[in-house]
Amino acid sequence: MDTAASGPLAGLKVLELGQLIAGPFAARTLADFGAEVIKIEPPGAGDPLRKWRLLREGTSVWWQVQSRNKRSLSLDLRDPQAQDIVRRLADEADVLIENFRPGAMEAWGLGPEVLAARNPRLIMLRVSGYGQDGPYRDKPGFGVVAEAMGGLRHLTAEPGRVPVRVGVSIGDTLAALHGVIGILMALHERARSGLGQVIDVALYEAVFNCMESLLPEYSAFGAVREPAGSALPGIAPSNAYRCADGGYALIAGNGDSIFRRLMATIGRDDLAADPALAGNAGRVARVAEIDAAIGAWSAQRSVTDVLAALDAAAVPAGRIYTIADIAADPHYQARGMIGSLTLADGSALSVPGIVPKLSRTPGAHRHNAPTLGQDTDAVLREIGLSAAQIQALHDKGIVTANPERTPE
Questions:
Q1: Alpha-carbon dihedral of residues 298, 301, 307, 309, nearest 10 degrees?
Q2: Could you tell me what percentage of the chain is helix, strand and coil, using 3-state DSSP and rounding each to the nearest 5?
């Protein structure tokens, strides 16, 4: 484990407010690449993510991924003294990340006008359900709602059946990644102007930005794309095909030359040579016929045999992975995507590796996710508070530290 400050963002100071997924995911990405991230959490329970899903020693193992490489300052943002501490921290920060409902930061005296007046170089990422303005700005917005409003949920279903969720918090994650992109662009611009700016990321807009041709097709043709299950409408063939052992092979034979190799592999040279199927438009018109031909072939073979034949023919194909498949896969291992850390109780925990991969200044797992308030006293000392001032804040319950702390 690398404990030194390193990576392309070494020296960048980030203040993370908010909780759960979108804002903290953005901050985690910056922390992975060397940024110093101070995470502010409410006293007592801290970020609710600490207790989400499966727990080890009372703490979510997800927490070890979402908050690695961060420091924890436990601070009650409702208190004026705590708000002053945040302003002082923001004075020295390069980036502030928050994902509260619009208006919350302003109510605490922490809005962009106040902070920028004190630190004109500050870049502020604001993640919310619907953005900082517009008629829906004050509505509560979680990722699941954003996925529906952004157009994704309508498409994630078998035709005629109830739409299903993707299975992970994809709306929050897309918003976080858009936020990181915005931060990096703002840092690049700040190098010229010397000024920070506000980055306004709405969850639904991050989803909508990934919806490909949905809007122009509706504008040009009045076409409303409908759910298509495992198929990819308008691109053929690309689908999941059931195999003899009950599994599925995902086969993407939608390139012109790839289609010919695929048809040759499944013994359908007639379809490979059919001039009407030489281009995508012709294949889309006869997609049911093509899918039936592929399905008849795959139904006679195991997933392993299907994939071996398609690999030999250079046809893109793959199996559906569970996390057990991922953890055992040699390619994941070779690419460093199955990392490992040691928890406080001495047990090992596998965690995802760091993405993207930089050749000269890669990201690193420098330290585990912090306990609640682990760095409270140290951070307060760094902004000039005396031992007596820090103790007074503890006595009032405005801040808390890790349980092992002893009064100074």
A1: -90
A2: 40, 15, 45
From 26, 36, 32, select the one nearest 1 (Cα to Cα): 32
CATH number of 238-319: 3.30.1540.10
* Chain centre to alpha carbon of residue 396: 37
Hey, what are 361's tokens? 């200044």
Domain ranges of the chain: 13-209+334-400, 238-319
pLDDT, one tens digit per residue, over 203-253 is: 999 999 999 999 999 999 999 999 988 888 899 999 999 999 999 999 999
d(CA 178, CA 392): 40
Assigned CATH topology for domain 13-209+334-400: Rossmann fold (3.40.50)
Beta strands in 276-407 (DSSP E): 317-319, 338-342, 348-352, 399-400
Contact 149, 140 (CB under 8 A): no
DSSP 69-134: TEEEEEE-TTSHHHHHHHHHHHHH-SEEEE-SPTTHHHHTT-SHHHHHHH-TT-EEEEEESS-SSS
Active site residue 76: no
Which helix (H) or strand (E) segment is 147 a member of?
Answer: helix 143-149
- Options 32, 76, 94, 172, the catalytic residue: 172
